[in-house]
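Hi R.,

Here are the chain sequences for the assembly we discussed:
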Amino acid sequence: MAFAKVYVTLKEGISDPQGLTILRALKSLGYDEVEDLRVGKYMELKISGDDPEAISERVKEMSERLLANPIIEDYRVEVEE
Amino acid sequence: MAFAKVYVTLKEGISDPQGLTILRALKSLGYDEVEDLRVGKYMELKISGDDPEAISERVKEMSERLLANPIIEDYRVEVEE
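And here is the predicted structure of the full complex:
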């Protein structure tokens, strides 16, 4: 049994209206020190198997095919046993 | 200047229909080894200031007030200089 974490973020240069909305809300609450905010997705997967490298490869494949949109998003995979 | 990362996840026991939908889609693509999947949010903040502890406290306050819903979500804050 292993746990994989997948972090999906928008590529640089891709506009992030959700992040901009949250940034404005923070400023309206007085958090003027926040200069930028970007929103991403975070997924935790519970996976059967015990070869971290093989699992990492499979999760990268899942990310390319389904979990992320590689045209506009970057992703990062971490596997913990 | 510092960077803060905020990870927001649903508390245990709170149902995650988005995660369930992705889990089913993965299984339909043949990824039968995935036993569970939970979806969270991930935010990257660019913040002025240079005291990591003070920044961390402020970001935790932002999380309580706006970035997370503490009733159904947990959050974790990391600050990098």
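The beta strands of chain A are 2-10, 34-47, 73-80. The interface with chain B takes residues 1, 7-9, 19, 22, 25-26, 29, 31, 33-49, 55, 58, 62, 65-67 of chain A (CB under 8 Å).

Let me know if anything looks off.

Best,
T.
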